[in-house]
Design brief:
The protein is α/β, with parallel strands linked by helices and about 400 residues long. The protein has 2 domains: about 5-315, Rossmann fold, CATH 3.40.50.12780; about 320-410, ANL, C-terminal domain (GMP Synthetase, Chain A, domain 3, 2-Layer Sandwich). It is built from 13 helices and 24 strands. The strands form 7 sheets. Strands 7-6-8-9-10-11-12 form a 7-stranded mixed β-sheet, sandwiched between helices. A 4-stranded antiparallel β-sheet has the order 13-14-17-16. Strands 2-1-3 form a 3-stranded parallel β-sheet, covered by helices on one side. β18 (about 305) and β19 form a beta hairpin. α1 (about 20-30) packs across α5 and α6 packs across α7. The N and C termini lie far apart (about 50 Å). The model has no long low-confidence stretch (mean pLDDT about 90).
């Protein structure tokens, strides 16, 4: 399809590495009401086919030349008429597109204003991009920065030395990171010397639990008032929390963002009511959509509690979810890929604590395959964050009487 024939509501899958052009294309498409689907360019052909089959994109972009052809330019004052359709996996491992459709002019303006007012995006901002831009949070910060007239610094695949050089030469004012980034940066700076961090006005982290000792180092390292944590998901955003609030309410991920209201039901599920511009459905999945919503509130299956002041404390992540380096890995998807190996008769995937990545993906299996054989098998079927780092042969997989895997026994 010619790019000129794209219409509002059409979808364009982006399977190319992040770059300034990438973000310009995202904004250019959104300004026309065309919805980009940002995807990991490292997806295997099997994964790519599975994800795109149900999302029916009008275009699939896999090269830099194709990306450039989509950049029709955008002007200051142009507003995104939609949200990108990021893909998330359910606990069954089935990918789901988070779909918001084409927004009304009022909702489009409210969407941009919400991010700008919360994070203070301004024309003098320089956003340092540490995470892949196919993830929702780094793309949101990058888009917000450009819409405000700021600029981006994108060093490429995360490397502490390269990031440090960018801080010294580009003097960024904002960055989004996950705890694994902070851990690696602090270790590197302890060994090589610390850069001047006074240029930062905002350092926001999310994506995985942040250990207390790491949080305290973050607060000490960056300018007062600059560090924030937020809690959210691909589907939507729940809270934001300045570090000064965290110090007064240890362990919290904050209170509801402006325009939202949090509640916790009798089962401990966290629900968040959202304004019209933040509503979504799961694309072509009405049953999953219905299960996620109650009135104007949605849940992603996380558990928590609220204190009397409205501060939220997480008590459990989505069932069985492994968060490695800020990337959500659903065991069922990895298990399905490994179970196809002829030398595997049963398999269970789980996460264990890891000092660098938060959690490490591990696999226990019954069968004749060797760990080396399974590692090769996984490389042809799974993107790097999903590939187990450890394989363990067991006599049997622990299960309940109804057949559910007892992952806590494996951990």
């Amino acid at each position: 399809m010619s790019t000129e024939r794209l219409n509002p509501g059409d979808r364009v899958a982006l399977l190319v590495p992040g770059s300034p052009t990438y973000v310009d294309v995202v904004i250019s498409l959104l300004a026309r009401g065309v919805v980009p689907i940002p995807l990991d360019p490292r997806l295997t052909e099997v994964e790519r086919t599975q994800i795109l089959a149900d999302l029916t994109p009008s275009l699939v972009v896999t090269s830099a030349d194709e990306l450039v052809a989509l950049d029709h330019g955008w002007q200051p004052g142009d507003l995104p008429q939609a949200r990108p359709m990021h893909v998330t996996s359910g606990t069954t491992g089935t990918p789901k597109g988070v779909w918001s459709g084409v927004l009304s002019p009022t909702s489009a303006a409210a969407l941009v204003a919400e991010e700008r007012d919360l994070w203070g995006f301004a024309a003098n901002d320089v956003n340092l991009v540490l995470s892949p831009l196919y993830h929702s949070a780094p793309l949101r910060f990058a888009v917000g920065t450009l819409l405000a007239g700021g600029r981006l610094v994108i060093p490429g695949a995360f490397d502490p030395e390269t990031v440090t050089a960018a801080i010294r030469t580009e003097r960024p004012t904002t960055m989004f990171c996950v705890p694994a980034h902070l851990q690696r940066l602090f270790t590197y700076w302890d060994e090589t010397g610390w850069p001047d961090l006074t240029c930062f006005r905002l350092v926001a982290h999310a994506g995985a639990p942040c250990p207390d000792h790491l949080k305290r180092r973050l607060i000490e390292a960056f300018p007062p008032g600059s560090t924030w944590e937020f809690y959210g998901s691909t589907e939507g955003q729940f809270t934001a929390c300045a570090s000064e609030e965290w110090e007064q309410h240890l362990g919290t991920v904050g209170r509801a963002r402006p325009g939202r209201r949090l509640s916790v039901d009798d089962d401990g599920l966290i629900w968040c009511s959202v304004p019209e511009h933040a509503r979504f459905t799961y694309f072509n999945a009405p049953e999953k959509t219905a299960a996620a919503w109650q009135g104007d509130s949605f849940t992603v299956g996380d558990l928590g509690r609220l204190d009397e002041d409205g501060y939220l404390y997480l008590e459990g992540r989505r069932e069985d979810l492994v968060i490695s380096g800020g990337v959500n890995v659903y065991p069922a998807e990895v298990e399905n890929a490994l179970a196809e190996h002829p030398g595997v008769t049963d398999v269970a995937v789980y996460g264990i604590p890891d000092d660098d990545w938060g959690q490490r993906v591990c696999a226990a299996y019954v069968g004749t395959a060797t760990p080396a054989e399974l590692d090769v098998w996984a490389r042809g079927r799974l993107a790097p964050p999903k590939r187990p780092k450890d394989y363990r042969v067991v006599a049997e997989i622990p299960r309940t009487l109804t057949g559910k895997i007892l992952r806590r026994h494996l951990r």
